[in-house]
């Protein structure tokens, strides 16, 4: 049985939806959890408080945090809450998110920036101080949240998809800096019923998109059982698969003219655009070495 006894987890945006389920399931398996849900007026009951009550009533340990992770101050305060309450940070799930859907021609800067501030900048604000603690302790599990909308595209979500693809670039670099510190960094792309999706899809589909169907892989990515880093995993409806960014074999054009023309590209387009025998890379170095190997042949 996968256990999180002795582990401390921070889950952003965990007052509702996916984050709430992640936090509850981590708690059931022994983790101490910081429940983050932005609440500017702390004099009123917060969704984070409700999740804490639910966890504590079940015998778990959790505390609420109301900071806005879209700010540097808020991200730092959230991580400090984990250290003040539990003296450790082992697991960080970057889950918080918002949407502000508009066609690109109608996309104003406020709609663009607010979405990037929560998804991409928010992940930076929380992960930066969290990573420093994990690095010092020589252990950590970090999960970013992307989206199939970003991986494959979705009408009216240029802001959301840009932020979510930015998180994949974030992960791709951070995992390389994490390797020698026993910090594993992975990304989940969930399809689940939430505040962001409940008005976008019909009820008969939403009923099959329970957050409980996504939580198992997220918990696995947070566990000691997960030995890999840098993976992107789709999860929804009880279906799970890995997604990879791959490079086609391509071709080397030797025009024997001292330059390469657009006509040369046209003549070789089928080979250039073919994805047959495509390949994934651990880092840009491997990609460049392959290119040099082709040129030297």
Describe this protein's structure.
The chain has 297 residues and is α/β, with parallel strands linked by helices. The chain has two domains: 8-243, 3-Layer(aba) Sandwich (Rossmann fold); 246-296, Helix Hairpins, CATH 1.10.287. It is built from eleven helices and ten strands. The strands form two sheets. An eight-stranded mixed sheet has the order 3-2-1-4-5-6-7-8, sandwiched between helices. It has a two-stranded antiparallel ribbon with strand order 9-10. Strand 2 (32-36), helix 2 (47-57) and strand 3 (61-65) form a beta-alpha-beta unit.
Concise overview:
The protein is globular, with a radius of gyration of 21 Å. β4, α4 (109-137) and β5 (140-145) form a beta-alpha-beta unit. The chain folds into two domains: 8-243, NAD(P)-binding Rossmann-like Domain (Rossmann fold, 3-Layer(aba) Sandwich), CATH 3.40.50.720; 246-296, Helix Hairpins, CATH 1.10.287.
Please tag this protein with its features.
43% helix, eight-stranded mixed beta sheet, two-stranded antiparallel sheet, alpha/beta, 297 residues, Helix Hairpins, 11 helices, Rossmann fold, 2 domains
Radius of gyration over alpha carbons?
21 Å
What is the end-to-end distance?
Answer: 51 Å
Look at the structure and name the CATH superfamily of the largest domain. Answer: NAD(P)-binding Rossmann-like Domain
Low-confidence stretches: none
Count of extended strands: 10
Looking at the overall shape, the CATH architecture of the largest domain is 3-Layer(aba) Sandwich
Count of individual helical segments:
11
Helix/strand/pairing class, anyone?
A: alpha/beta
- Helix coverage percent: 40-55%
> How are helices and strands ordered from N to C?
EHEHEHEHEHHEHHEEEHHEH
Shape: globular
CATH topology name of the largest domain, in short, is Rossmann fold
Strand content: 15-25%
The whole-number mean of residue pLDDT values reads 93
Strand order across the largest sheet: 3-2-1-4-5-6-7-8
CATH secondary-structure class of the largest domain: Alpha Beta
Largest beta-sheet characterization = 8 strands, mixed
Please give the domain count.
2
